[in-house]
Amino acid sequence: RKEVEQDPGPFNVPEGATVAFNCTYSNSASQSFFWYRQDCRKEPKLLMSVYSSGNEDGRFTAQLNRASQYISLLIRDSKLSDSATYLCVVNHHSNYQLIWGAGTKLIIKP
Amino acid sequence: DVKVTQSSRYLVKRTGEKVFLECVQDMDHENMFWYRQDPGLGLRLIYFSYDVKMKEKGDIPEGYSVSREKKERFSLILESASTNQTSMYLCASSLTGGNSPLHFGNGTRLTVT
Question: A64 φ, ψ to 5°?
């Protein structure tokens, strides 16, 4: 079993819809969690950190469920520019070794 | 804004060649990383460095070495390139500690023929 798992998608979603995807992690000692966004043929960029209490940044909401060991990302009122691959990242040793999911591809259609 | 610059966007090398990938960051970050990214596998850490002249192996160090002689520069070396090292290579930097976000360069797509 992979340490960090994501549904690869693609998720095909109409513009304006709400979309959510999850990321599961296997190590219950995991301490920090992030969502990165990667556009086609570009480098990953930090979208948001995920805090225990959940956090929101505009149309984006991130949640952490420690009991079930997953994090989620919700995108409301999706835009064409949200089309990208979303990477889940977990750090369970508070050192430098981040564990990356393989990403979920999102395609927003007009 | 943090800038991480990788020396080449595309490289084509022959099997057995020694390959140097250079990375420079301009934000005085302590940590620097080299990843490779392959379809369906996610990012895999090759090596990282948390200080000048310090280096640590990541998950897949075999066939690679690194050099960090100056804080701003982190080089990845493929001692003898092989076809299974064809990949996208991403350099990143971050502030000290394990929870700081990573800032990536725009990647080097290496093809080994």
Answer: -120, 130
Cα–Cα distance between A55 and A78 in angstroms, integer? 18
Q: Which residue of B104, B106, B108, B109 to mutate against A (max A Cβ within 10 Å)? A: B104
A10 prior amide bond cis, ω within 30: yes
Query: Distance between CA atoms of A71 and A90, rounded to whole angstroms?
Result: 10
pLDDT block averages, 10 residues each, chain B of length 113: 88 97 94 93 92 92 97 97 97 81 94 98
Would you call A96 and B56 a contact, using CB atoms and an 8 Å cutoff? yes
Which phi and psi angles does B80 have, rounded to 5°? -150, 95
> How far is the CA of B100 from the CAs of A14, A98, B86, B109, in angstroms?
34, 11, 29, 26
Q: State how far the Cα of A60 lies from the Cα of A66, in Å rounded to an integer.
A: 20
